[in-house]
């Protein structure tokens, strides 16, 4: 197994891990958004609560979600270790004047991926504590629709959370940070895999920008709409 | 034109460096290195130690000149080396910061001169083709796709100046290594050893203590020869397939 561990610790092996975990998280975000948009359905939370109950009790979903947690941690831990290693590689003496330019990406986002990533990670922890953990600890009130089985009323929990304008601002700002992270990260993941092609790279770069704007925007409108509707 | 220079001085790798201020009357037709020569002439006349900096061909093809000028390797112009940069691109009264390349893998030898022999060791690890030299072959005996030969030549224009490392916020040497991996891998003579070359050169690059590429692309933006990060993607492919599919351990 010597060759395999050497591969995984090599600069390109670690690129591969960052890239694949990042692409998985990009897919996850899309699924997560599709589910969350049901919060906007005008049915008092029925469809969202049924969906949340399904996600919490489906074996396959639960298996994939374990993988999701693992990939988030792996992406974060490896990202931070690369950040520290790269800072060290720059040497003790920093440039007095810096002027970083870039091609087809935003230099400010690109060189601060780790800072943006740490903010996103803190957001994820708070977000998990606020909803996922409360659901796990059965701290969510129950509701039943048309005499059916009792479900956790996660919709109500979300509604209460977003009555607080501070949470609304926190979520919207966090989504902006995720957008910056994705602006560089989406196309960077493909480049790391060696998927660079005269015909397809411009399409990937375009899709990456569309994704980096639309998906975080989709998440961000939910707290805003909840706040405007309910406060 | 009157210039204020802030020049990095450092006696040796272990000494602490500092910025030294100079005011200089320069001519806008001078190259940047000629301006440095004038500064050194003045220092010599004042019986002071001249500033050490590297230069050789002074026509942009040898890769000896370096310098980070106002935060940019080879200065503000694109597609040129420091020796090809002219003072007409600066304004009268400008303050110019002149620093050495800063990376752990490039220790300062003196003032603005850094030790770039880590690049030599990357080349020694695999940046060549092994050929038993017999009779000279006919030039057209091996058919080569026009597109591949152009891409190989584009990669081969790398002069190994290390501006990519100097520009990279991570001090990564991916662009240099990938240009060398690419220019050989694209041609039939180099293809034979392509997997082995990618493995060995990347391993050596990692061992030299360069940072790790995160696709910031500052390397391509600052490269005096316009080497593209397409080469990095190609090296990633070469290395991934050599590591995961190739039989060499």
3D structure, described in words:
The complex is a heterodimer of chains A (231) and B (249). Chain A has helices at residues 2-9, 11-36, 46-57, 59-90, 107-111, 113-136, 154-161, 165-192, 201-230; strands spanning 142-144, 150-152. With 231 residues, chain A is mainly α. Chain A has a two-stranded antiparallel sheet. Chain A is globular. The termini of chain A are far apart. The model of chain A has no long low-confidence stretch (mean pLDDT 95). Chain B has 249 residues and is an alpha+beta fold. Chain B has helices spanning 32-45, 117-126, 146-156, 163-167, 174-185, 188-191, 194-207, 218-222, 230-244, and strands at residues 2-9, 18-25, 68-69, 72-73, 95-99, 108-110, 113-114. In chain B, the strands form two sheets. Chain B has a five-stranded mixed beta sheet. At the A-B interface, α1, α2, α4, α5 and α8 of A face α7, α8 and α9 of B.
Topology (elements, then pairings):
The complex is a heterodimer of chains A (231) and B (249).
Chain A: H1 2-9, H2 11-36, H3 46-57, H4 59-90, H5 107-111, H6 113-136, E1 142-144, E2 150-152, H7 154-161, H8 165-192, H9 201-230
Antiparallel strand pairs in A: 1-2
Helix pairs in contact in A: 1-2, 2-4, 2-8, 2-9, 4-6, 6-8, 8-9
Chain B: E1 2-9, E2 18-25, H1 32-45, E3 68-69, E4 72-73, E5 95-99, E6 108-110, E7 113-114, H2 117-126, H3 146-156, H4 163-167, H5 174-185, H6 188-191, H7 194-207, H8 218-222, H9 230-244
Parallel strand pairs in B: 1-5
Antiparallel strand pairs in B: 1-2, 3-4, 3-5, 6-7
